[in-house]
């Protein structure tokens, strides 16, 4: 029951700050920061418990008990949840700390703290859920928090619009997600993970009628759930809210729109892998969506000039990577990338925030340059983050990204294509990351005098989280290192995905009887599970780095490539070297063009103006949505209101009845002459009619 | 014989009725009605209702129609250039057809069964007047009293309505 | 307290009677507040002593009233009406409080109206005799007509007249149906007896149509909704609250109390028709709301949309759907009532309902903004707030009954968010450019007292709805069993 | 023997002549006369039925009809005088106060 405190502590601080706002004001962090750190501490404890083979699953209370429908609020902590817990609470703690400095003096200081605490609670409720409805609860709540935080500076029109957009696009995704949940309930009759995952296999051949065609129910479920992931993880078609969300303060960009909330989609797909695994079609859709998003985001990121936008598009692109990984069944790789990405992307955002903070809230990289001398800590941490993102050995991104690429390589014909996309994206990623980096810290000094005079290194509360994350960015990747020692990420996460679908042993309303695989795995290798979160990868123990990979595939229907043995190992190294070279060339290109002021980019842009404008304008996707959805909807609504409602229904039909009555009255008025004989005449007429009718019929 | 008498009486009744409603001068109307009342009395005699025949003449001819004549003289109403209402053709047409329908319908009706209680012979034996009186003052005593009350009310009403200054002022206001 | 329910019904009327004798406005205000609060307090034992284990009516009182027509004073509650009664008594004090200063003219009469209104409303939910039901049902119109017509806005006469005649027209058909049933059921208006009377299917069809018109106007369902925006816009705040929170529920309650159990075959065969109208109402209402610039109109149209969920829930004949519909009724009462209260609060300050006049209220009225956003989120149906519970249950119920209906209705989730957030964005966020808005003061203590309990209730229902749900389980099961005995409803199998 | 239907038909014809009189005359006096005519037509019916059904009750009712006729004449003529006094007319067409 101690685990209940993990989400409840942030909730408590939210409530306290919310209720006693008046007395909190600028002291809000005094409650929030300790609470979230305590939550982090508990998460570490929980992680160790899980690693020690004590996963938990229990219900707190029944939420909506109606007949057979008995969803609960419950807590389930398995390996997947535990690693998410760590990520969420760690990043959240650091962001809380960072916020103390970053938001200092802001009018909504207390409000901001309240909301990020609420967000932390919601995100924890999401990942710790043991059923779909609580997942949905967290899912929507994080959306709300994201909304409230984007609109933090509500007086800016852009913030308001961005928040609106974020909420609506998320809601569209949530609609799909909700429908997916409905279908799960309708198919299985339960929303509890354990029950659903255990029973979904029995329905693998069920079909349903979709507008006249028979489709597989499980595919339908998977696709609908994935729509939710598309919305939340800003995948292609529901992606355009994420860059706009950068209107919010930078800490939340780091926390919500990089490290945690946007990864909920990947988390959900991983969590629901027993469903996805059953449907090749769904997996293919997932993989292709992810790959396309990765490419799409990267192409846009190439030309953006707003420092946060670049990072945002890069986030989108990386999320695409993770989704792609899920789509080929490489959940472990996806989750691992999620974790490493959470760390280094949060770092990048926070560092970018530090830059912005230091340079008088300027976000346009064209107006920066030579910032290195003002902020050494930021410089170094950002460098580490950029290296991690670019995928340079030995930083985190290298391991996780290459694992995805490797899994893709092994995933059949389609996988090869995905691999190619992945490599191209990797090149772009390296390029645009260092484009920003060089333009900010080197290049031509385009700062105004005023900016320059205020430029300074950020205070401790800002730099400490940066440093912590930078260290993390350096080491966290080694957890999934495929070369030396055991691949800890696979050892730890693998069992979740490895477990045969029909045997997921989560029992309803009872303590979870998780297979003790994790503990055994660690025990066999003589490993100290308690040290798992710490960066220690150089354990020289011999272990097959792919021990878990086939397992991950075993369940996967899409990634059916068989692989194993020495040949693959060589191949893997070759591919690693290749992608390293690709990333390196990307960095070199950025160096060549942006380290010193250079005409080359402008020339290139001029010669491919169409492409350049397209990328700069996000391939006109906003304009397209505006023209296809927004404006027609508004126009249609207005038209419908004016014509259908006000005129047809109200005036013609409803008031029409009244007017007809009135006209009738006006006509009948003339029969009211006041003369007795007329009345008598009408009576006679009546007699005539009655008698006539009587005789006729 | 009786049939001939009936035909005569009925024909005169109808003609007088038509005259009553159609003649221009009110006095002629009254006189036509008077004629009709006499013939109705004749019909009553045909139907063995001698008492009623007498009452018909005394009350209707003697009292009611005389009252009309008094009023006519009292008011001295100008004869109007147009004595018929505009809707008269419709009235004649519609009611004419109604009458036609009724006449058609009533041709061969059988209504009720003779009770045999007051056969012509029985009435003759005790006398028409006594027969009515017996009925009126026994079974119909209460209606009879009510009728007298109606007359009383009518009398008071007539007085109140015609008395100058009682109603007129109100109406004028 | 043997006659607890009678007390709950007639206490406000007694209060109104006393208020007639008192001339002082201030005293009457206090009297009204005390009466309504007392009424709420004595209605609580209904809930606490309610036996969850039986579908029978409880707290029944039955006295012969008009023996000639076998009309009885017969009242009682079951799981379906209990929550609605509690909700009615719960909201009444807020109506009094929000009219405390807002109604300057003839305040005393206003309070009397509110109290009379409450008697009629509780009476409708508690009546177990159809004639009694009808009397309360119609009696409700009079104070509402006065509230809109006397204390309303500029076009109040038009709105009040439209409201009155529209509803009355529907009610008359109800009367016809009622009299027919009276004769068919062997000269009784008794609701439990009528529930056990089988009516011929052809007769049911016409009876259902007659009742449908009456109830659909009140709900209001799609083509019968146009009185609502007018009435809402013109009504004073308390009037809007009562309208939205309680009166709209009467129609839905009527469907549950009469159509489903008494006219089961007709209900089943006309289900596709009702579901279609409901889906149209959800989507159409949302689109209408989107086009509004008048805050009250926007919320009024949102009510059309939300009540669409209620009617869908009732006509899917499963426990999720029907309980969801009842929850949705309660939630809509709380949430929309609260939204109207919010609008009233801001209207008292600015005397305009034009959305373009507002903006940036978060800056000048942070507490108000917080409450408003909370209620908006509840209206959107965010998990954790009350709105989610009803909406989700209804949608899930609808989805299991007929997938297409479920899917189409679920689009209301998105559309609801669109118009509600549009309202929030225009009103609460964005720049506080209007100088009038910069002078606004935040909630007073009185206003805070009004909103705070509603905020609490929003979350209580949202996070722990079990106490609200458990009272209705058995009654709803009973209702479903009544319908389940008959042949399955025709399905619109487009997605099945 | 004269059949009952003859009397009934006669009565009906007379009655409707009376109705026509009520409908088509402009003078109140003649309208009242027409009403007397209708009453008489009814009386013929009563008496005829009384005779043919061998029951004296019909004749008793004629008696009552007579009373009503007398009362009607008294009140009617009184009204007529009152109207004439106020409006100097006995023309029914000009009396449209019932419109208000």
Question: Quick summary of this structure?
Answer:
Chain B has 173 residues and is mostly helical.
Describe this structure in words.
Chain B is an all-alpha fold and 173 residues long. Helix content of chain B is 76%, strand content 0%. Chain B has a domain of 78 residues: Four Helix Bundle (Hemerythrin (Met), subunit A) (Up-down Bundle), CATH 1.20.120.1200. The longest helix of chain B has 26 residues. Chain C is globular, with a radius of gyration of 21 Å. The relative contact order of chain C is 0.10. Chain D is elongated and about 50 Å long. The chains are: A mainly alpha (697), B mainly alpha (173), C mainly alpha (496), D mainly alpha (100). At the B-D interface, helix 1, helix 2, helix 3, helix 4 and helix 5 of B face helix 1, helix 2 and helix 3 of D.
Sum up the overall morphology of chain A in one term: globular
Structural class of chain B: mainly alpha
CATH superfamily of the domain at 1-78 in chain B: NADH-ubiquinone/plastoquinone oxidoreductase chain 6, subunit NuoJ
Radius of gyration of chain A in whole Å, from Cα? Answer: 30 Å
The residue fraction in helices of chain B comes out at: over 70%
Give the terminus-to-terminus CA distance of chain A: 86 Å
Number of discrete helical segments of chain B: 8
Q: Which chain pair has the greatest contact?
A: B-D, 96 and 72 residues
Unreliable stretches of chain B, pLDDT < 50, 5 or more residues?
none
Please indicate the percent range of residues of chain A in DSSP E strands (runs of 2 or more): under 5%
The name of the CATH architecture of the domain at 1-78 in chain B is: Up-down Bundle
Fraction in helix of chain A: 55-70%
**Average pLDDT of chain B:** 85
**What share of the residues of chain B does DSSP label as strand, in percent?**
under 5%
Could you name the CATH topology of the domain at 1-78 in chain B?
Answer: Four Helix Bundle (Hemerythrin (Met), subunit A)
Q: In which order are the strands of the major sheet of chain A placed?
A: 1-2
Record field, number of beta strands of chain B: 0
Biggest sheet details of chain B: none
Rounded Rg of chain B: 21 Å
Chain-wise SSE layout:
The complex is a heterotetramer of chains A (697), B (173), C (496) and D (100).
Chain B: H1 2-22, H2 26-46, H3 50-75, H4 88-106, H5 120-126, H6 128-138, H7 141-162, H8 168-172
Helix pairs in contact in B: 1-2, 2-3, 5-6
Chain C: H1 4-21, H2 25-48, E1 58-66, E2 71-77, H3 79-98, H4 107-126, H5 130-139, H6 141-151, H7 156-184, H8 191-195, H9 201-218, H10 227-234, H11 237-262, H12 264-290, H13 295-314, H14 319-350, H15 361-364, H16 366-380, H17 386-401, H18 403-427, H19 435-438, H20 445-463, H21 466-470, H22 473-484
Antiparallel strand pairs in C: 1-2
Chain D: H1 4-24, H2 28-52, H3 57-87
